[in-house]
Amino acid sequence: MERNCTASCEEIVRNKQVILREHVRGFPREADMEVRDGSVKLKVEDGSSGAMWVKNLYLSCEPKTRHLMKTIRPGSPITGFGVARVVDSANPKFKKGDLVWGITGWEEYSLIASSETFFKIEHTDVPLSYYNGILGMPGLSAYVGFFELCSPKKGESVYISTAAGGVGQLVGQFAKLLGCYVVGSAGSQEKVELLKNKFGFDEAFNYKEEADLDAALKRYFPEGIDIYFENVGGKMLDAVLLNMKNRGRIAACGMTSQYNLEQPEGIHNLMNLILKQVRMEGFLVSSYYHLYPKFLETVLPHIKQGKITYVEDIVEGLENAPAALVGLFSSHNVGKRVIVVSRE
After folding, report:
1. Which DSSP state fits 97?
2. Co-location of 125 and 14 in the same domain
3. How far, in Å, are 97, 161, 209, 261 from residue 234 at the CA level?
4. Residue 111 pLDDT more than 50?
5. Are residues 223 and 333 in the same domain?
6. Where are any strands of DSSP class E within 74-141?
7. Oxidoreductase: is it a keyword of this entry (predicted)?
8. Which residue has the higher pLDDT, 6 or 288?
9. In percent, how much of the chain has pLDDT > 70?
10. The domain that contains 250 carries what CATH number?
């Protein structure tokens, strides 16, 4: 196979990286990470079939990153979803210059050994950073969890926790386009206003200001909840279980309240799954990558027609990535947080 590289690929270049210093206990701290300058030769070694070097452009900063940190050896770069440009390739699916998104390193350049988690970006008439959010893993997660798992119907009542994040803001808008009644919760009044005034939610509330989550949900759902899109777990899930309708559906996408705990919280109201015949199903978006083309066909027209609004929280510079990640767990972000490595 002809290699997709020129002589310039062999030059040694600086490679700034965000390194995990030690395994994280509890909430991540900036001290758990270190920004280092290294160097790399941008050439796939002979015999590295299927490998490719990419230049990272935009990195996704999300709660899932904290979960992935548990699998990383100290001294290695943090990993997560990102948008990149191929600079050298021994992979027949990708050539030099291709734009791609998938799991990469928190660094300027990454060597990708396996391309199973990578997609070529075909539509460049929308911002590339969108492939870290609405057109990437968060968008596909929203689509799969809502449409494939919950089988929504017009007029149903939908509740979304962490509703102002990259996934929640899209689930709510999908539900509104279908004609559902939609309520979301978030961690600040600014986000509550965003949900109602920008994303079109019917109602929204700040969960931090609610002493009794069960009472809050009964206030917004006096007849109960048909669909709950689960992003939080813990006390929120316990309260939701008390307020589900008969044959309600719960899509478990994430449980952010549990990621930083040494001992996970227990759930006390699971009997309601039986008594109300509620179906609760967890999912990994990687099991639904085959639906990505169908997802794009559905979402791209809505974006271009202005039927879906999308908000990003942009952080400039890889050196600011540790603070960006830590800030997620203090509700500092408004919208989908994206780290800009290079705008080329």
Report:
1. T
2. yes
3. 45, 12, 17, 11
4. yes
5. no
6. 79-89, 99-105, 109-112, 119-120
7. yes
8. 288
9. 97
10. 3.40.50.720
